[in-house]
Each structure stands twice: as structure tokens, then as C-alpha cells.
Amino acid sequence: MNKPExxxxxxxxxxxxxxxxxxxxxxxxxxxxxxLRKFEALKDVSLDIHAGESVGVIGRNxxxxxTFLRLLAGIIKPDRGTxxxxxxxxxxxxxxxxFAPELSGRDNIMLSGMLLGFSKDAILENMDAIIEFSGLQxxxxxxxxxxxTGMSARxxxxxxxxLHPDVxxxxxxxxxxxxxxQIKSSKAMKEKIKSNQTVVLVSHNAQTIAELCDRAIWIxxxxxxxxxxxxxxxxxxxxxxxxxxTRKMGKNRDIQK
Amino acid sequence: MIKDLYNYRGYIFYSTRAKLIxxxxxxxxxxxxxxxxxxxxxxVYYGVFVYLLHRGTEDFVSFLxxxxxxxxxxxxxxxxxxxxxxxxRGLMQQIHFPKIIVPTITFSVKSFRFVIVTIVVxxxxxxxxxxxxxxxxxxxVVLSQAMFTYGVLLIxxxxxPLVPDVAIIIQYVLQAMMFGSGVFFRIQPGxxxxxxxxxxxxxxxxxxxxxxxLYNRWPNWNSLVIIALLGVFxxxxxxxxxxxxxxxYPRVAR
Lengths: 257, 254
Hints:
The structure holds two protein chains of two kinds. Chain A has seven helices and nine strands, in the order βββαββαααβαβαββα. Chain A has helices at 65-72, 105-115, 120-134, 149-162, 179-194, 206-212, 230-256; strands spanning 16-30, 36-50, 54-58, 80-85, 90-92, 167-171, 198-203, 215-220, 223-229. Chain A is globular, with a radius of gyration of 20 Å. The two termini of chain A are 32 Å apart. Chain B has one domain. Chain B contains twelve helices and no strands. Chain B has helices spanning 2-7, 9-26, 32-52, 60-87, 89-92, 101-128, 138-159, 165-180, 194-197, 201-214, 221-244, 249-252. The chains are: A alpha/beta, B mainly alpha. The A-B interface holds A 27, 70, 73-77, 91-92, 94, 97-98, 100-103, 107, 110-111, 114-117, 119-120 and B 8, 10-11, 14-15, 18-19, 21-22, 25-26, 90-97, 247, 250-251.
């Protein structure tokens, strides 16, 4: 398989934000008192994330994408290898991080913002922008308990979006609100990316990554299969998918015979 | 530890407030439950000890209510603290934060509730009798209990995510402590086993509350300081342990 030339855009990359080197994550699954099964979610992944980049993470379900995102967010530490954060504020665009259902939307903005590590002043400064972006003006002083799933998701997105962390991690597989807000949020994300926001986007939709990212990493079975410019990685990913599909079709044909 | 708590003081404050509001508006009687809970407990103990066992010291109502309120603060803090980190699982898997703030929020919720209830109890006592000058020592007793409670609560919260079985053990320990702390009986100096009985810090604490609130005597300052220092020691050690395990909890919590 032809691997794309790695780091072809090295010459114009910004300051190093996060560096992942040969990271592996092993989960212990306890079966009984004596049996301990080890499960390698990530085996060997390396990636550098520089200022202003937008990096797509692609791979199938259970390939280790979410674990990789947790490593980047500093939630867990690798069992082998290293993750170095050069001192930047990373936040997972987590929908509804720690919402208190009995409190108003406004109070929840405060709560979430503080958990994301922002000061009271910074949140108050951005309060109006967050409310406006979420489109929840008429509901903002009502308990979040009364919100629909889509409305809470919109509030969650707006908080992380408006507070500008250094690196924004987005797990697209979680989905954000209704169709109209999806279009709005994806447009907002595109604008962010253009405005030099550093983004890591997890998705199993190659189309989204092609649209939004300039680099990509393809994780399969806990290993970085390919990484580099987005077009090259996606070309490999799509062709591999096709290859797999034809192989499966072939198998089916065999069975039918 | 201090630095983490300081950095997240805003979050701790807002989250405590959120939890208190939730607690109050969750039930129809809301805030009244804060007072009904100790009253109902007292009714049970009073019935059992006065009518069934024909025991009970003089002014048993005041004696019971002081013991119940203070011990409930300790036991509910430790119990909920033990499950607090596991309950924050969803949050931990989405964002990194120092885990010590989770049991700290549990503690501040319970403490706020305790302070309000204690004020009501003191108003009740001052209606029955004139307040004593020794009431000025109440904050010292509260502070000593606060230190001790926080230290014990941190042990549970640090260990339970790793060894869930400890949560069950904690229940038994708390029950044993309730019987062994003199919530509903009194052991006085000079009585057999007094010294052994008072090795239990909660027994000593409850004794001090009653000394200052009911018997117009100053507390045993040495004991209060020793118990507070024990609490500080536990807090420092356990916060160090929790810090070490900060990245481990998101993996093991269930």
C-alpha cells in the first residue's frame, strides 16, 4: 500500500500544541476475581497537532477514535508512549457536559464554562453571544430539564464554540441537534477552522472530514494506518472500504453457490 | 490540593448551589425535608428507647436531636462521598478536571444543609432554655468535625472507584459507628469502657456538642484539636492519592 508522504505541509505549520508519540491504551476488563482480560484500545498512534490546524480522525466503530480523543483532551494517560501538551487549553466539544437539569440554561452556561476551565468574567463576557448562537433566547431562564434533547445539545455546542479553547475536539459521532442546527453548527465550525481555530474532528463520515479538515489520521484497530494530507488519507480510506466491500460481496457469492 | 480547589472554587460554588436547588425542588415538601428528616429519626429513636426499652436520659429530646443532626452530617457525607467519583463518570470521560473537586462538592452540599439545620436546632434549644455562654464554642466543634468528616470522606471517594466492594463495607462501618458514637445513649467519664468508647472520634465530637449546647460546659479543646489534625492529615494524604489517580478514575469508574 502506498502510504502518503507524511507531514507534507511541515514547512507552513504553526507552533506545536500537542504531541502524541507511540501512544497505547490498554483497558482492563474484569471478568471475575481472578480473570483479567486486557483490551488494547490503542496500540501505536503518533500525531503532532500544531496551531491553526484542523485534523480529521477517521476509522470504523471501535477503532479507537474516541480513546484517541480522550488522550488528546488529557482525560486519560497512555500506558505506553507519551502525550505532551505544550500548555494549551484543550476542550472536548462535549455536548451537555455536566448540565444540572433543575437549573436554568443561563446557570448551566456558567457551570459548564467553569468546568471547561474558564473564569467567571470570561463566561459573563461571552454569555450573550452563547445565548444568541444557541437560539434559545426565549428558554434561557427556564430549567434545562424542560429542554428537548436537541435544545440541550445546541446549548452544549454553543458554550464550547463561543468560549474559544486553544484546541477544540469534536466527536461528530455524537450528533448535534436538529437538521437546521446541524447546518448552522457545521457552518460555524467551518468559519472557526478558517479563523485559525485548532480543531480535531472525529467522524466516520469521510465527506465531513474532507470538507472541514486539512489533515487526517486514519485509525484502524488501534493503529494509525495512514496520516497526512486529508485527500490522500481519505483516498486510501475510501479505496480500502471499496476493497472490503467487493471482498465481502465475493464471499456472499461463494456462499450462494 | 489547595491550588486545585482554589482554581475550581467557582465551579465548586455553582455546582454546590445547583445540587442544593435540585435537592430542594425535587420533592414536594422541599426544604422541609431537611428538618423532617432529623425529626422523624428522632421520633423512631425516642419511641424505641423511651417506650420500648424504658431508657433515656433527662431531656432526651434535646440530647437525641443534637446527636442525630451531627452524626447525620458525618454519615451522609461519607456515604455519598464514597460514590461521588463513580457518579461523575459521564463528566470525567468528557473532560479533564482534578477529581478532588467531586467529593468536595458532596461535602459542601452536606455541610450547608447541616449548618442550616443546626441553626434551627439552636433556635429550638434557646426557646427551651436560655442559651449558654459556651455556645460560642459551637463553631470550634463544627470545625473539628468538618476536618474529620472531610478526611474520612476522601478515603471512601478515593478507594471505592478502584474497589467497589469498599462501598458495602463503609455501610457497615457507619452503622457500627452510629451505635458506637452515643447518638442515643450517654457514656460518662468514670463509667466502664469510657476510654475505649472515646477512641471513636465521632463519639468524642458528639460529647463535645452536648457539653457546650446542653450542659453549659466548655469543650475538651485538646480532643477537638487532635481530631481536627487527624482530619487534616487524612485530607492531605488522600488528596495526594486522588491526584495520583486523576487519570485513572475515568477508566475504572462504573
